[in-house]
């Protein structure tokens, strides 16, 4: 007989989310006993988390969480060898999964995280969420976990309508767990403090009386954010529980409280943690990914605005500086500023080679190869083993820093330390290194060309060139009309291109390295003449009969004035 299996080895949230989905599919198939969960692992050591005032992992032995009846009914402890397994996301509908389930092709159907409605087109979202709440109540937790569940419902009911912001930090940011060094492996699940502050600001701009509840594991940082706002409508679940702490002597009790409390929100901001996915399924809240709210430009502006307003822990500040580096890399920030972000992060978290790796990448992508060689030599002389272990760390997704390996491939033997890294990368025989590779949007050159592509400059150039002969004067109206029409068509085509592919949008003129020098073009005779002509043309089409005549008389006066000014400038230069 086939079974529907929740087979997760990570945290409690992922395991429960996958098992709720197994139960849902099992009831669709006609028998809840088809659902099983493989719960492997023991109590995790939370010493490091507790030292930093972090709510640690809620994972515990299965008999420390569930009743014996639940364990007997739903738990399995091993998978037999040669088991035939398929992921349920292979199917596009519950009906096609059901057909396969009873065909005896597979032994186990493995369930995913999140909402099954994201995978199967024949699921009604509202009915699915209502059924998940019903199935949640079938989970037979030990009696000690009943209180936090009922208390969370009670506390949320007292608050009324509220927006929840889930602030995930913990092992992704702090130094009691090595995953913070492993590039983007778990970074998408973490929030930097400045993102939380930006979300709060965004909501308060919509409604200054809005109740906002912050739920998270970094209790000190959450309290500092609440103190900073000094707003009675901004609270935390930790504060709501503070007079009731004797009921919460296990992390799993806090975990259950937060799930239920979150489920009662009208809106959940989240980085996508399993805890919030369960909460979404148990309630009616909108599920909003925090990292998708702002554009990179908005993020960078907000993060710079808030960084340093509150003095968070060194680990949090280091993580925030790395986020500033990433946002700055996308928005053409000056390379000297990007260097400061990484070096400052390294000062705060000196054991984190992630910052050394990206500083090296920054130098390489800016063609500062000699400086990169010296920098790498120093690293290899002081912490070679730790650095190389991090750079070539391998996990279930592959090499975690594969996205930056491409930066080393143009190095030649003149830079021996860098060349050794290149050879190591090449020996791995990885395919498609250029795919999804990390790149820094260095401030480009070319502002003069951009200014010369302005209509003002092109018209002014045509006016000067065609004013040198009688034939030029005769054909001037046709030339100017042609330039104007062609410019209009080019602008239309450009807008259509960036609508289809926003990445083709040109950077702002201010972001160019040669912007200040290029500003001189705006003061040239060509540019000024073009501006005057455009002004005359736009003001000459009004309702009055003589408006065009007066506009162009003004234009020719402006031409004489501009010529006189430029002639005087040339005379002064000669003197």
Tell me the layout of helices and strands.
Layout: E1 3-6, H1 12-29, E2 35-38, H2 47-51, H3 68-74, E3 75-76, E4 85-87, H4 94-101, E5 108-110, H5 125-136, H6 146-159, E6 163-167, H7 193-206, E7 212-216, H8 219-229, E8 234-236, H9 237-240, H10 251-263, E9 267-270, H11 274-282, E10 286-289, H12 296-306, H13 314-330, H14 335-348, H15 353-365, H16 369-391, E11 394-395, E12 398-399, H17 402-405, H18 416-427, H19 447-452, H20 455-465, H21 470-500, H22 515-518, H23 525-539, H24 547-574
Parallel strand pairs: 1-2, 1-5, 2-3, 4-5, 6-7, 6-9, 7-8, 9-10
Antiparallel strand pairs: 11-12
- Mean pLDDT value: 88
Name of the top-level CATH class of the domain at 146-296: Alpha Beta
Mind telling me which CATH architecture of the domain at 146-296 this is? 3-Layer(aba) Sandwich
Percentage of residues assigned to helices: 40-55%
Number of distinct helices? 24
Largest sheet: 5 strands, parallel
Shape: elongated
The low-confidence parts are 541-550
Percent range for β-strand residues: 5-15%
Looking across the biggest beta sheet, what order are the strands in?
A: 3-2-1-5-4
Kindly describe this structure.
This protein is elongated. Residues 541-550 have low confidence and may be disordered. The longest helix has 31 residues, at 470-500. Helix 4 links the parallel strand 4 and strand 5 (108-110). It has helices at 12-29, 47-51, 68-74, 94-101, 125-136, 146-159, 193-206, 219-229, 237-240, 251-263, 274-282, 296-306, 314-330, 335-348, 353-365, 369-391, 402-405, 416-427, 447-452, 455-465, 470-500, 515-518, 525-539, 547-574, and strands at residues 3-6, 35-38, 75-76, 85-87, 108-110, 163-167, 212-216, 234-236, 267-270, 286-289, 394-395, 398-399. Among the domains are: 3-40 and 77-136, no CATH class; 146-296, Rossmann fold; 452-574, no CATH class. The protein has 575 residues and is α/β, with parallel strands linked by helices. The strands form three sheets. The chain has a five-stranded parallel beta sheet with strand order 3-2-1-5-4. Strands 8-7-6-9-10 form a five-stranded parallel beta sheet, with helices on both faces.
